[in-house]
Amino acid sequence: ELSPRAKIVAFALMCVGYFIALLDLPIVSASLADVAGGLSAGPDEIAWVQTSYLIAEIIVIPLSGWLSRVLSTGWLFAISAAGFTVSSLLCGWAWDIDSMIAVRALQGFLGGSMIPTVFTAAFAFFPGKKIVAAAATIGALSSLAPTLGPTSGGWITDNYSWHWLFFVNLVPGIFVAVAVPLLV
Hints:
The chain is an all-alpha fold. The chain contains eight helices and no strands. The model has no long low-confidence stretch (mean pLDDT 95).
């Protein structure tokens, strides 16, 4: 049994993973033209960078309940965070549009399983009236990611390159992937 403080820290770490998974779609959408140019992709091809992410995310969200029972919520989240981080690195290293689409699908699948597990942790860690604060935190992050994503993505691409749209996930992803199994 975790102490109340440990539950808050674990939930906060899971919220970081949740946030980067939610942020990844709008941060990339702002710079799709730059990604297309870097990968020599046409408009029809570059749309699949976002579509593959969304389709994979939609597929895994309903599977997350079963995966949580098989692996446990903490391990599912940690494995997903680690995989999301590795797939972010691979997206930044993508050599053509086909590799980007394949790795984005993997990234969406792994990021998508972090979304429902945060809700599971919130309900498990914070019973009664405490769930209101946890739900408000999740709601705020859900609103913040699509708000900050396009501006952040444009700034990153203007000041660095489109590769950094994916590399920004590495430090928080590694931190979450290591810390969550220690606490949850």
